[in-house]
Amino acid sequence: MRIFDRRNFLRVAAAASAGSMIMPRMHALALAQEEPTKPVAANDHIQIALIGAGGQGMGDARSAVQVPGVKLVAVADCYNGRLTRGKELWGDDVFTTRDYREILARKDIDAVIIGTPDHWHKQASVDAMRAGKDVYCEKPMIHLYADGPEMIETAHKTNRILQIGSQRVSSVLYAKAKELLASGAIGQLNMVTASWDRNSSLGAWNYTIPPDASPETCDWPRFLGTAPKIPFSAEQFFQWRKWKAYGSGVAGDLFVHLFSGTHFVTGAHGPTQGMATGALRFWKDGRDAPDVMLGLFDYKEGFNLSLRVNFVDGGEESESLIFTGSEGTMQIGWTSLTVSRVPREKEPGLTIDTFPEAMQTQIEEAYRTKYPRTHPEGQPPVGSEKYVAPAGYSDQYDHFKNFFASVRSRKPVVEDAVFGYRAAGAALLSNLSIERHAVVRWDPEAMKLA
After folding, report:
1. What is the 3-class SS of 174-204, one letter each residue?
2. Model confidence over 311-368: pLDDT tens digits?
3. Which domains does the chain have, with CATH numbers?
4. H or E, element range at 404
5. What is the pTM of this model?
């Protein structure tokens, strides 16, 4: 599916060598995915299961099994066709079931990937950790605010690894951005502008519905879980992101990535307040989640965050985070990171042309004594650097690599439940603000609505 390929893999052209740079000051980031030369020991293999085998879940599993020493042995999903597909992809010996509890009861499974609809994230994660499994849970971590504390507490009590699946925090591009910001490359940060635009039907969650979709092939009661009990709907089963009962709209699907990237790069824990506006502008097909959303958020670290998601845009799909500082900007896109440095002018400037000429001369002479020219024509130097990820780079692969390293070592993951809750909690402020028609306050340290 094209949309997930775009999400999970940075589409990068082959990085130019130092001798064939197409522009000045371009840097190819070091490959971060080199594997160890020694093979993984037989007793060090990790056996995993997939719970929720939709497009995102299967994409996750494909990346996970590329990590050396990882094998998928079981798949759970509420649609029979996906169980069949699981065996086609990973072998006839793969165990399949509609009921994920059968997977959790197996002693041969070390960790699970949870790719269910959002409203199942908390319960599936908690059940898995209580069963002794480590968990990779797709973003957003929560569907309701009440989900977060229980997931954090369960991870702590069971001593299980819980990683949330916003792969930006494992990206070499975001790691470089974090390093550059900390070094003062763009001066004092004052604003982050982040956007994600889509113009395709698939990008707007209109996923294909199989012709055999029915109450017989789909376990509708199990899919509904805690959601309102309604008659079977193939559209809601396979396109669940379009409804608030199962998903979190553009805030939970896309805003959360932008929050995760912002928090990782800046080290911030979250906004102190936010407001949003949004509506259904184009996809008036029965869904109740907006297809356009804009949000504004305040951070105690001294910057503001502006977010935009647009499913109606006529251009190509794009994701962008722009960090604006006192001495330049830093932009992260699909394939690269660009830093544009414009050192802050030290002179205050003059507005003297309305004064008498003699007075202008007097003021300018005193001014130039105090502020001598240091650059040609009084302008500061302008510089630009571009950092490009390796060809074929996948931040999703690195995110799984980090997860499995923690599973083996029992050391903290790069995106634990606290980080995941702070990102998702911040993102869902947007939905709450639209519902309340008001500014919503959030305590990022206590992780609760203020």
Report:
1. HHHHHHHHHCCCCCCEEEEEEEEECCCCHHH
2. 886 667 889 999 999 999 999 998 899 999 887 777 899 999 999 999 999 999 999 9
3. 2-16+34-169+393-418 (3.40.50.720), 170-220+250-332+420-449 (3.30.360.10)
4. helix 395-409
5. 0.89
